[in-house]
Each structure stands twice: as C-alpha cells, then as structure tokens.
Amino acid sequence: MSGTAQIGVTGLAVMGRNLARNFARHGYTVALHNRTAARTHELVEEFGEEGIFVPTESPEEFVAALERPRRLVVMVKAGDATDAVIQEFAPLLEDGDVIIDGGNAHFEDTRRREKELRERGIHFVGTGISGGEEGALHGPSIMPGGSAESYESLGPMLEKIAAKAKDGAPCVTHIGPDGAGHFVKMTHNGIEYADMQLIGEAYQLLRDVAGYSPAQIADVFRTWNTGRLDSYLIEITAEVLSHVDAATGKPFVDVVLDQAEQKGTGRWTVQIALDLGVPVSGIAEAVFARSVSGHADLREASRHLAGPTAKPLGDDEAAAFADQVEQALYASKIVSYTQGFHELAAGSRQYDWNIDLGRIAAIWRGGCIIRAAFLDRITGAYEAQPQLPSLLADKGFADEIAAAQDDWRAVTATAVLQGVPTPGFTAALAYYDSLRAARLPAALTQGQRDYFGAHTYRRTDRDGTFHTLWGGDKTEIES
Asked: In 3D, which of 179, 429, 207, 432 has the Cα closest to residue 318?
C-alpha cells in the first residue's frame, strides 16, 4: 500500500472517531486503526461519505498508509495504554515522523516520551484537546506541545480542524516544548473544576437561600448568560436545570446522585501547584468538594450535626440576593482564572517553556469547556501587558472585583449564617483578601518555626537571616 493519507488516527472510541471524522470533513485523507478492527470498519460504514478514509487492520498496514512525514494521532487511555501504543508503532517509524498524543496524559509522562522518541529521530507532540466529543467533531481547542519543527508539519492541519473564535482566529497555537501542551490542558481542566464548583455553589444558594426551583434557577442562568458571565458552562447549566426526568417527572438535577466524579487532571493541577509553590486554593477546594461528595458513608454518619435555622426570603429579597450571587460568582471566577494563569506562568518558568499567556487565553475562547466571553478580556490584558504578574494587577479586573466585593462578602456571610457550604466562594475571597493585606500572620508562623526548629527568619528593618536563642536570654544572632 502506498502512503496516501495525510494523517492517521489510532484508537477509535468516541473522541478518536470524531477527531478522525473532523480531519476527513476538512478534506484530509485519514488512515484508521483500532485494536479491534470491527470498530474501524464500523466507522467507515457509518460515516464513509464524510470524506476519504483508509481503514487498516495492523500497525504495519496503518503506518504504510501514511505519507511522509507520517503523522500518527494516538487516542487511547492515558498511562500504560499510551506507552504500549508508542512501543508498538515507534519501531515502524522513521526520522521526522510525528506521533501526536491527544489523550489527557500527565505532562511529566509527555516529557519522558518526547525525550525518548527525540533520541530516535521521532517527533512526539503531547496535545491537549478540549471540547469533548462534540468539540472533537466540530472543532476543539487544541494545545500542542513538542518541537517547533513538528508544528510546522502539523500546525496547518490542526488550525484547519480547530474551533474558531468569534474573530475567526483558530483556537490552536504551538504551546511550547515537550510537555507544555499537556501542562496547559491540565491547568485548563483545573480552572474548569473551579468554574463548575462556583456555578454549583451559586445554584445551591439560589435554591436553599432564595428558595428558587431548578426551573427558576435555569431562567436566572439564562439571563446571566446574556451578560459578562456568557460562557459554555453557564449555558449548559441552564439546560441541565430546566431538564425534567421523563421517568419521575421530577427535575433532572433531583434524581442525579450527588457524588461528583473526577478523572485526575484537577487533582494534578493542585499537586503540581504545591510543587511549584503556587496558591490555587479555589481549584483545590473544587477538587476537595468532589472528594467530599463521594464520601457517602461519612456524610451519612454526619446527618445528626446541628445547623442553623433557615430564614426564607421574600420575593423582592430573593431577587436582590440573586443579583448579589451574580456578583460573587463573577468575582470568584476572576480569582480562579488568576490562580490558574499564575500556575501557567510558574510552570513556564520552571520548565523553560516560554508560554504566551495571552495566546492561551485566546485559544480558549472557542471549542473548549471553559470557553467564555470573559476570555477576550484576559487576552486583552496580557496583550497590553505581556509580563502582567497577576490578572488582579490589571486595572479593569481590579476595578470590577472592587465593585463586586460588598455583594461578594454579603453572599459568603449569608452562606455561613444559613449553613450552605460555599468553599469556592470563600476560598476565592480569602485569596483576594490575602493579596491586598498589608501584613499576614506568616510573620508569627515564621517566629514559631524559628522557636521550635531554628528555621531562622528575615527582618523588615535590615537585610540578612537571623535566629533567636529562645531557651536563654532570647539573644538574636545572624545566621
């Protein structure tokens, strides 16, 4: 078989199948491979009219179907399965060929794989793909890492199949070397966790404090989606809340078990932030909230715990409270993105990736799960100040969050008084207050550390490192 396919996809579950169809719909000849050949033939039989597919049944046949340089997209489960596919195909490839991993791999695995394959003359492109199965088919946000040379070969194809922002720009860019693409996708998902948690808290407040039904809350979210909170997640939240379960006639949200699952990327975001020394408290609380929801036995055993007596609101009070919740949601959202972009900047410095934060915001404007009108503002902030130390240092965001803070504080206070858990809102507010505080209790913490462990401290009035001899006359010595 002579190589005629411009790109190939191995791993034809939902994401891989839809990505292959996306390439074919854009005029590329696509080689197909799957461990179970029946799935390959099913795709061609069902969607063959969408473009030119080359079905294959063995790794050798698959590789032979690809034109040089070969571009091979791997869409299998992250971890051992990805390593197994690489080990299967790498011996069949030649210098300059490209393996693209489109799974949710840990970026350290991607760095390892990229190094190993580079030594064999093969390009490895760890690629974050966001947008779910619909995005894979109609246009995802794509975050490829790897060498600049590999992007020259692959980039034009990805730009063609990627989502397009409202200004027509493709939602893809070369992120940086080795694991940069998967690092950015990981952080995207961490922000997504925080965004979803904040939306969930807004829903719970509107239900438990304002007394709104799911259908009424859906209308509130639809209204919010016409303003500054315009986003995919707000849009689908309204859809979920307005859905009625056919079997019971109850609101759909009331028949879903309240135990949120996770696949690991949010957890990785927090773990890596700890390694980098970056405070991502809002993302961490979102991860922990999912963990708490899954401990059904612990929650059941705690039903006896006392809480405050609910104080129902009148109609006018409820409407005013809903407006305050919108302010709290928006302010907390700013903080979540601030923390996520701080981690991106720290990772870029740590691994020498030179990530363009403005470009990241730009490619998240379409296709991905956190796509939102809000991202235009972030893109503009970084374009105006490429070295912006924090989104909260941008005057526009700082002014907005200052304008929202009274309502934000009122909402968190009400949540505490009414016994509604809002770890995302309160963590975001604590982060904001920590940044603006003239002094933090860390001075006392460092004094305690010096007392019990001789860990030393620095002073505000002169340079140097010091230790106090606490057991005697408390003499201070310079270390």
From this structure: 207
- Residue 1 confidence (pLDDT) above 60: no
Counting Cβ atoms within 10 Å, is residue 437 exposed (0-12), middle (13-18) or buried (19+)? exposed
pLDDT in tens, 244-256: 999 999 999 999 9
Q: Work out the average pLDDT over 231-235.
A: 97
- Cβ-based neighbour number of residue 273 at 10 Å: 23
Mean pLDDT value of segment 281-293 = 96
- 318 burial level (CB within 10 Å; 0-12, 13-18, 19+): middle
**CA 123 to CA 147: how far, in whole Å?**
7
Is the per-residue pLDDT at 236 higher than 90? yes
Q: Pull the structure tokens for residue 381.
A: 């902030």
**Catalytic residue from among 185, 201, 285, 343:** 185
Full-model pTM: 0.95
Please name which of 106, 129, 432 lies closest in space to residue 266, comparing C-alpha atoms. 106
Owner of token pair 């007392």: 451
Radius of gyration (C-alpha) of the chain in whole angstroms: 25
46 catalytic, yes or no?
no
Name residue 413's amino acid.
A
Residues 194, 198, 203, 208, CA torsion sign: positive
Q: Phi/psi of residue 457, each to 5°?
A: -155, 165
Helix or strand run (H / E) with residue 445: helix 442-453
Q: Is 395 among the residues known to form the active site?
A: no
The pLDDT of residue 2: 60
Residue with tokens 């980039």: 155
Q: Looking at 50, 67, 94, 192, which residue is catalytic?
A: 192
Return the H-helix or E-strand segment holding 458. Answer: strand 457-458
Strand-pair category, 71-74 with 7-10:
parallel
